[in-house]
Amino acid sequence: MAKILRRERLVPNIHLLEVEAPEVARKCQPGQFVIVMPDEKGERIPLTIADWDESRGSVTSVVMIVGTSTQKLSLLKAGDEIPVYVGPLGRPSEIKNFGTVLCAGGCFGIAAIYPMARALKRSGNRVITLLDVKANYLLYWEDRLKNVSDEIHISARDSAFDCRDYIPKKVQALLEKKKKLDRVIAIGCTYLMYSCAEATRPSGVKTIVSLNPIMVDGTGMCGACRLTDGGKTKFACVDGPDFDGHTVDWQELFSRRKAYFEDEIKSLCEWEKDRFA
Ligand SMILES: Cc1cc2nc3c(=O)[nH]c(=O)nc-3n(C[C@H](O)[C@H](O)[C@H](O)COP(=O)(O)OP(=O)(O)OC[C@H]3O[C@@H](n4cnc5c(N)ncnc54)[C@H](O)[C@@H]3O)c2cc1C
Ligand code: FES
Predict the structure, then answer these.
(1) Is residue 130 part of a domain?
(2) Ligand 1: which of 212, 215, 267 to mutate, most ligand atoms within 8 Å of CB?
(3) 72-130: pLDDT as tens digits
């Protein structure tokens, strides 16, 4: 059991969830995640640790509503308890002084990239942050990311910020301007990470992506998160979630993520029907 300390809507489809989890807060590192079960009847889903406060004993994640479990999480209130909250899981991200690191985040990845950008900045890197949102009203945590970045660019399709381009194009533009990048880290939807990796492939700039296959146990036992990296079978929960975007088999990842599409739609319809019955 874990107690919800705060649940706050950041933008229409994205909520912050702060949970009392002192053991996780004491041990976690950037890039790690927790497995959460929103209620007794629910499924286990992974959420990246976006921030933590050891003195308060709390861990924060940011949840984008896409289906039944994330809907359920978005309805929790401070004081509610969730039956399962396990972590920290996964390998921590590699943090050292690489030189100039570009951190690219979209949707929930804006929050997920924050602890990495902060740790990279503390390790002496020059941090360039790129945030991607479909529209300006979907932007959150801009100030937090500004505080840990040397340079920040925000891209929104409605152009209220400095560019309209989908961020992989912006990554390409920066590389074409001969910006020296030593590493790119991208977190967000699978397509954003894939596109960022494709944008850097010709230049060979190492591009780390935090992969989001379906997970169940999060400990390497069930095989749900299987993927292929560099021709070898890997499990995202124990070998990742960070992988080299230039060696991942993206087509396999896209297709495995769609495996339960019809069941996911059915589950959401049934849950909505029960809720409003
Ligand atoms: C290591 C790891 C860390 C993660 N961290 C976070 C996090 O910090 N915050 C967060 O919100 N999510 C995160 N995710 C993704 C999250 O676990 C899933 O979105 C969640 O399991 C969906 O459950 P659901 O029941 O709400 O939706 P489902 O019913 O499982 O999915 C609903 C539909 O939405 C689609 N979908 C799922 N995810 C996305 C997406 N990101 N963008 C667009 N469509 C999508 C699915 O393909 C499916 O068709 C992470 C995943 C992994 C593997
Ligand atoms: S989630 Fe079960 S093996 Fe990774």
Answers:
(1) yes
(2) 212
(3) 999 999 999 999 999 999 999 999 999 999 999 999 999 999 999 999 999 999 999 99
Global confidence as pTM: 0.94
| pLDDT, tens digit, 9 for 90 and up, residues 199-231 | 999 999 999 999 999 999 999 999 999 999 999
> How far does the centroid of ligand 2 lie from the alpha carbon of residue 273, in Å?
31
Count CB atoms within 10 A of the CB of residue 207.
27
User: By three-state DSSP, how is residue 144 classified?
Assistant: helix
Domain span at residue 225? 100-257
Index of the ligand 2 atom closest to the CA of residue 223: 3
Q: Are residues 104 and 227 in the same domain?
A: yes
Q: Under a CB-based contact definition with an 8 Å cutoff, are residues 155 and 132 in contact?
A: yes
- Specify the CATH number for the domain of residue 13: 2.40.30.10
Element (H, E) at 89: strand 84-89
Task: Please indicate whether residue 60, judged by its CB atom, sits closer than 6 Å to ligand 1.
Answer: no
On whether residue 49 sits in a domain, the answer given is: yes
